[in-house]
Design goal:
- By secondary structure, this protein is of the alpha+beta class.
- Helices cover about 25% and strands about 25% of the residues.
Length: about 280
């Protein structure tokens, strides 16, 4: 029987998220099976696998099926062998990386396509991650608001990240100047699905272009609050051997900072493209 025939995709929440069973990723992923996985990601925006035993080489090989690995220079390397694999490790004694609603590195001119995050060690309690659908967030806005936002652009930079983590030895924040901001549409169209998604987040978005400070601040605050509505979300409980793959172009996520035991993850981020209307 083909690997793809054994794969099952179970939707976890109405707006976002699915768990995939019936496949051992360590045994290899043929073209048909990868097609099923990719289709599930495009449909559900974040997908989860349980009880996997993939090693770093196998995780990297799977990541390369989706696109080009992109190292996040702010994170520690996962060993000397892997130029494009990051280590996320915390025992609760430091501020958890990602413990604010965000999409990854929208300060880049070409923000990441997505990431593959594998859990090596999970705390017994806590350490969940929540994802939210920016498709659902956009579609739930009133038509006049959608029409208003469709033509706007916003500036993104990493100054908030600098302030949040500087001096805490969590990320590689070396005190260098914040790079020139990247300008992206407030609403962009997904390059594969064609669906529109909100593309602002509290970690990187600084202001809306062409507006006064007070106008920009209030509109962004409304959008941040709107994006966090529970009906747009799915929550994932990590166990050792869990893998999450998410599409950074249409989601935000929040890593909960509520644990005091070791949480050790390895992540491969994927290069993306410039957001378009």
């Amino acid at each position: 029987m083909s690997i793809s025939n054994s794969i099952r995709v179970e939707q976890l929440a109405p707006a976002i998220g699915a768990e995939i069973t019936g496949i051992d990723l360590a045994a290899g992923v043929d073209d048909a099976a990868f097609g099923r996985i990719h289709d599930a990601l495009m449909a559900h925006q974040v997908i989860f696998f349980r009880d996997q035993t993939i090693n770093p080489d196998q995780q990297m090989a799977l990541a390369e099926r989706f696109g080009k690995p992109l190292y996040s220079k702010k994170l520690k390397h996962y060993g000397d062998k892997y130029d494009s694999m990051s280590l996320l490790e915390n025992d609760g004694s430091k501020v958890a990386v990602g413990s604010i609603w965000h999409a990854d590195n929208t300060d880049f001119e070409e923000p990441p396509l997505g990431s593959l995050l594998f859990c090596e060690v999970a705390p017994r309690v806590g350490g969940d991650t929540i994802w939210a659908s920016m498709y659902a967030a956009y579609e739930a806005l009133s038509e006049p608001t959608r029409n208003f936002l469709d033509g706007l652009s916003a500036l993104h930079d990493n100054s908030n990240v600098q302030r949040r983590y500087a001096g805490k030895e969590i990320l590689k924040m070396d005190g260098t100047d914040v790079a020139m901001p990247a300008e992206h549409p407030v609403v962009h169209r997904h390059p594969v699905t064609g669906r529109k998604a909100l593309f602002v987040n509290a970690n990187y978005t600084q202001r809306i272009v062409g507006m006064s400070d007070i106008e920009s601040r209030h509109i962004l605050q409304m959008l941040y609050e709107h994006c966090q509505r529970p009906e747009f979300q799915v929550r994932f409980r990590w166990h050792s051997g869990s893998l999450a793959i998410w599409d950074n172009r249409c989601t935000q996520h929040h890593a909960l900072d509520d644990y005091n035991e070791l949480r050790r993850m390895r992540r491969v981020q994927l290069a993306g493209s410039k957001p378009m209307r």
